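Structure, all three chains, one model.
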Amino acid sequence: MFAPYLEAVRTRAPLIHNITNYVTANDCANLLLACGASPIMADDPAEVSEVQAVCAGLHLNLGTLHTGTVPALLAAGRTANTLGHPVVLDPVGVGVSALRGRTARQLLEELRITVIRGNLSEIKTLARGSGTAHGVDAADALTEATLDTVLPLVKDLARRTGAVVAVSGGIDLVTDGETAYCIRNGCAMMRQVTGTGCQLSALTAAFVAASPDYPLEAAAAAVCAMGLCGEIAQSRLAPGEGNAALRGRIIDAMYNLTPPQLEEGARYETR
Amino acid sequence: MFAPYLEAVRTRAPLIHNITNYVTANDCANLLLACGASPIMADDPAEVSEVQAVCAGLHLNLGTLHTGTVPALLAAGRTANTLGHPVVLDPVGVGVSALRGRTARQLLEELRITVIRGNLSEIKTLARGSGTAHGVDAADALTEATLDTVLPLVKDLARRTGAVVAVSGGIDLVTDGETAYCIRNGCAMMRQVTGTGCQLSALTAAFVAASPDYPLEAAAAAVCAMGLCGEIAQSRLAPGEGNAALRGRIIDAMYNLTPPQLEEGARYETR
Amino acid sequence: MFAPYLEAVRTRAPLIHNITNYVTANDCANLLLACGASPIMADDPAEVSEVQAVCAGLHLNLGTLHTGTVPALLAAGRTANTLGHPVVLDPVGVGVSALRGRTARQLLEELRITVIRGNLSEIKTLARGSGTAHGVDAADALTEATLDTVLPLVKDLARRTGAVVAVSGGIDLVTDGETAYCIRNGCAMMRQVTGTGCQLSALTAAFVAASPDYPLEAAAAAVCAMGLCGEIAQSRLAPGEGNAALRGRIIDAMYNLTPPQLEEGARYETR
């Protein structure tokens, strides 16, 4: 059932505005191009409203957050809200500093966020003000063992914020507070490539921008697509290759991903 | 006739100062190293004049422009002008915001720009205050069908600014207002790699810095070299590879490009 | 004797806080993941102390330095000093501008730096206020011919600062002012990949954070590991590949590097 969401991205080629960190911006841009969307990065408060106005979606990412960028996050978000463009929030490292925590709360209070996309540690921090912070790449484990405990917490955050919440981990969860997709695509090695989470957030913005009436399904399709590309990429690794090769091959897999391939490769159940 | 311009870069190894966006800075640096030049990135107003003073050329790029960087663009440009170093301006997304439009105009008014390098949409915005803006990677089409209409507009911009103008598209145009090189190197897939335009601007700065008395020919040689590397890169793609692989292979092709290869592969006519 | 230092990184998986330039941040992050550590990049003065508090080491890098980042370098460094975390300083381009020179001096005066890691030109600038600056990638030559002249200068800087000093060049030197490791790993082509120096600085932070009681040996092990990965990467290059391929293969080599491989491949003597 996810094929149409990839088709929509390829057909509509949404322009996605990213206010994001400088560590993984290049990968976000190339992944957006690979899926059929287009990227623009712009974070100066003086121009973000104009930039968002010519775009179809917005990706707000708190990695390498600067105090001076907070007004840009808010201004771009307000323009997106006014124009009905979807907004994806990636609260990178939100538990690590007061600046990131305060900013995430402010964005959730002052904007309508369409999708919150983070790892379990980040989502827990948003949900109940706690979580373990081990950098920006690791997280509390979201596994078969913890799924039943985690699910109500994530659904509750979705209901309270009105946003679809997408949690990345050993299993991925995507829920609007009612339906939850439990997704079993992806591979552990993706965590050893910096920015696969940021890329997924950018991709989610593209998928939701191309199918704005179906944010839950479009976000779940993006999560399946990213995980599937990780699997394809890993299966193509040659001996002696490592996380740098995987990084490129994930983007290449997205470039070549077909809707039928996504349909067939997506592994999920609903709860 | 373009072989000597590549030879000059390899021999003189010009140090190029880039004030550019954080999305594609790494690729610009590696492409400069690949062609035989050296990169330095520095954008704080407090140091750009000193940095430019030890360099041979300047690449000013408006991607991810910050208000606080505008004084750096001007200060570095003034130093380059004083010392007779070539200045390449890449007006990334100039039609998208007032900040970028105002900054581009200010740079053109207050500095002597050696080469303006952009896509057709950006060049049209500079030429007549209009153009369609679809992100930073797409553009109005510069094709056989539109060439005759576009050429006078671009020549006029070159004459009015005193700069060589290089327009990237399906066909590339490089003109000083009198002679125009119409270049048919490159491949469409290069547009799906973020930053090939930024890289070409950095490369142009290296070529012009190595042959400062021949800005038109050196810029045209850079455009041919970049397009040719795109063709070589595409011809080397394996099944399953995509835009991430192309990205690396373009830089690798530049690393291995020989002057005779450029001579033989350059496809252009003058008008 | 260097195998245990790599084992320690793999076992302890130190989280390394990087305040670094936007040109090579992605490569630093992926190399840290490749060696078994984790990265976080954060440079806003408002959050760096909190970020450093959850980390095990700090990498301060002066590339693309911004005036507004100087308080962040100092605040993160003070927190690291208070908590006993190692601090690696990479004085990128320190001879190029007064801003970088002044900042490097201030960091050396106000912080306890564990390791200073730079090329010979940068180290000379710190040691005696001179040096030739040709961008950030090139340097005075550190070769068999200049080794005897350079060694006392570098040892003296180590003694005066109390830091281990690591100098990169044709030969690498790592010294605490008494013992000096002269290391002959690596290959010249690494200089044509932007950011191999920055990556080595990040790697050094990881190695020293994992073995904080042995900063000299851990830093020397990091230098050997990086050089060895450069050799492995070069030996795996296919015809037509260049510096972009080398860039990825270095990180992949680190991902696959085993302690016995490091033990066997490290080429050094002490003086």
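The longest strand of chain C covers residues 15-19.
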